[in-house]
Each structure stands twice: as structure tokens, then as C-alpha cells.
Amino acid sequence: MGEKTLKFNSKTIHGGQQPDKAYGAVMPPIYQTSTYAQTTPGGHKGYEYSRSANPTRTALENSLASIENGTYGLAFASGLAAIDAVIKLLGPGDEVVSTNDLYGGSYRLFKQIFEKYGIKFNFVGMQDTDTIEAAITGNTKLIWVETPTNPMMNIIDIKAVAAVAKKHNVLLAVDNTFATPYLQTPLDLGADIVMHSATKYLGGHSDVVAGALVVKNKELADQLYFIQNASGAVCGPMDSFLILRGIKTLHVRMQRHCENGEAVARYLENHPKIEKVYWPGFESHPNHEVAKSQMNGYGGMISFVTKGSSYEEAIKIVERLKLFTLAESLGGVESLAGHPASMTHASIPKEEREKSGVVDALIRLSVGIEDKDDLIADLEQAIG
Ligand SMILES: *Cc1c(COP(=O)(O)O)cnc(C)c1O
Asked: Whole-structure pTM over 0.85, yes or no?
């Protein structure tokens, strides 16, 4: 059966994969090697040096391309290394229009590294395409979207932003870390580049840091491959193996993340001590219709604010949680809780942070795949 005809749940397991040519190993071996024997200068089997290419990484890159409905996958040492490669497509004087409510590390990379090299970043709310158009100038080369946004769970209409990008002839990149291709495939909606922190749901077990890019266009793939090889932040063979193994169960994990996420969101929504719950599955969510049309579910990421919204109360709740581990990161099988203002988003100035709703009392949950009754009981004892 042709690769293209496979459904998503089969692609996670078989997409871009063939049994190993040497011994038929079903799982691609971990080629823990830096170099490859040549019979004569240039006489090799497609691999010369592992920064340029490594067979375990190739297996992962093929899988990534397959699950995101792309053509070319590139695996990096971290999500930020993948973003770094995308911004290196640009030069001094170029401008980027980016989501204002985005991963703190992406903001730090844009502002504190790339602005030094003369690239300008414009952070705007992206629920309304007019705001995006107003921020585009003759120098804009890239639109950077994260949806659902982190940690406010706003949903950005990828198809609508893609239309704006096409009209102005700029590239559209989507950070698909939160949704994963189980929930949405941005390339199908008109994006040029999909990016992942594979550290999160793709790896899924909180045991590896890695990143990914997927594109359809050959020229763009060649440029990104050139940067990946020239800058060198590649995904190592062991890490590639772990992400590949994670991807094989992505669909079953995501199904459970969605179920548990919904149960926890509805529990919090009905809790008398909770002021506001941010989860795109609520009909009252301002972008619910967009979420419904572009996503196959609502995921396991939820943010909430308690009544009275004090910093101290938020800290007490996250400290009292037992089954939810207080930790950075997300997307693993175990449930995590975080306090964005002091953790993931601490590198964004308070003023900037609060403009997009990241108040001191905000708590973010990455709902794992434990039994949902146990998760709710833990929240019950922590919130009181
Ligand atoms: C974690 C994360 C990143 C950064 O990825 P790393 O693997 O930590 O470098 C980027 N975007 C989002 C949405 C993330 O959650």
C-alpha cells in the first residue's frame, strides 16, 4: 500500500520507514557513529559524516515529513535550534511578524539574539488578520505563528494567516508543538514551514530534548538543510531513536491527552474557586469555531486563574499538587503543572506578559495520560 494512502494512525508507525537494510531490524538501529568508511574518496553509501546526515536521524526525518503531510523533515538538537535555523533564512533589515503570546524561549531568541543581527520582530495578536496585515511592511519576510498559543490557549486561524502570507509573498511558519499533527497539519492549511519542540508530545516521555522542521518546498528544504549542516545543531542518533519511538504511540497518547484534558477543563470550569479556565474546547472560548474547524480535538493543555488571583495563592496551589509535578515542559505521559510568570515566561518582561494575559496568578497544566479521576482528586486537594 502506498505511503500517501495511509491514515494518520498508520503513518505514525510506518510513515517513511523501511526495515533496516543490513539485518532487517524492524526498529531503525541507533547508528552511533560520527563517520563512515569510504572505498575511494567520495565512494560511500550516502553517509559521510553525522553532522551532515546519519541513518537514524534520516529515519526520524522521514517519519516527521510523513506525519505532517510534508515532503522534507529536518531534526535538530532542540526546538529552539529548529527555530534558530528558520530565522537564519533571514538577513539584516528583514522583519518578522510574530504571535505576541508565544513560548518564552522563542521570544528570548528573537529579541536577545536575532535583533542584534538587525532582524526586526513585531509581536501582535493574531486572532484578527487585519492586525497582521497592519504589521506587514515591505521588509517583512516571515510570519511566525503558534497555535494554540502558550499559555493563553488562543487559537489562530492558520488558513486565514496563510492567505495573508501568500498575498504579501512572505513565508508562514507554524510552531505545532502544542497541537501535534494528530490535532492539526499546518502544511495542509497553507503554511510553508512546520516547527516542533519534539521534546514535548512527539517524544512524549520527558526523556529527550529535540526539535523538528517540516516543509513541502524543495528549495526551502535545501536552504534549511544548508543551515542545519552549516550551523550544526543536529539531533543525535540516540535522541533521534527516542523521538521516533515516541511518534509511534503519538495517536494513542493524544487521544487520551484530549479525553483527560476535557475532563480536567470541565472540572475546573465548575469549581467555585476558579475565576477563568482557558481551554479551546469550551463553546464560550472566543476562537472555539476556528479550533473546531482546524483541529481534530482540543489537546491536554489548560491554563486557569483562581478567584482573587493572587501570586501567593497560585504558588501555594502548584506546591500542594502531588500527582501533577511542578516542572517546566509539557506533553509527556505524566501530568505537569507550571507557573508561567515565574517559570516558562519569566524571560518576558512583566508588562509585555500581562498584555497578553499572563498574569501572576495564572497556572498552566499539561494534562498527562494517568487516570482522570486521580488527576481531578489531586486538583481538588490542592485548590481546596
Ligand atoms: C518547548 C517549546 C519550544 C522550545 O523547544 P525546546 O525543545 O525546549 O528547545 C518552542 N515552542 C514551544 C511551543 C515549546 O513548548
From this structure: yes
How far are the Cα atoms of 12, 28, 156, 180, 345 from residue 295, in angstroms, in the given order?
18, 31, 11, 10, 26
- Amino acid occupying residue 365: L
pLDDT for residue 193 is more than 80: yes
Same CATH fold, 251-383 and 3-247?
A: no
Q: Tell me which residue has its CA closest to atom 2 in ligand 1.
A: 197
> What is the rounded CA–CA span in Å between residue 236 and residue 343?
27
Q: What is the pLDDT of residues 4-32, one digit of tens each?
A: 689 999 999 999 998 888 899 999 999 99
Question: Is 200 designated active site?
Answer: yes
The set of residues, in sequence order, having a beta carbon less than 8 Å from that of 342 and lying 6+ positions away, is 315
Closest CA to 347 of 76, 80, 78: 80
Domain ranges of the chain: 3-247, 251-383
Q: From the candidates 175, 192, 239, 360, which is the catalytic residue?
A: 175
Name the residue among 165, 219, 153, 154 with its Cα closest to residue 189. Answer: 165
- Decide if 182 is catalytic: no
174 lines ligand 1 (CB under 6 A): no
Confidence of residue 1 (pLDDT cuts 50, 70, 90): very low
The CA distance from 88 to 228, in Å, is 10
Atom of ligand 1 nearest to the CA of 150: 13
Give the CATH number of domain 3-247.
3.40.640.10
Closest ligand 1 atom number to CA of residue 330: 15
Ligand 1 geometric centre to CA of 103 (Å): 7
- 151 Cβ inside 6 Å of ligand 1: no
The CATH number given to 251-383 is 3.90.1150.10
The predicted-structure confidence for 176-187, as pLDDT tens digits, reads as follows 999 999 999 999
The verdict on whether 175 is a catalytic residue reads: yes
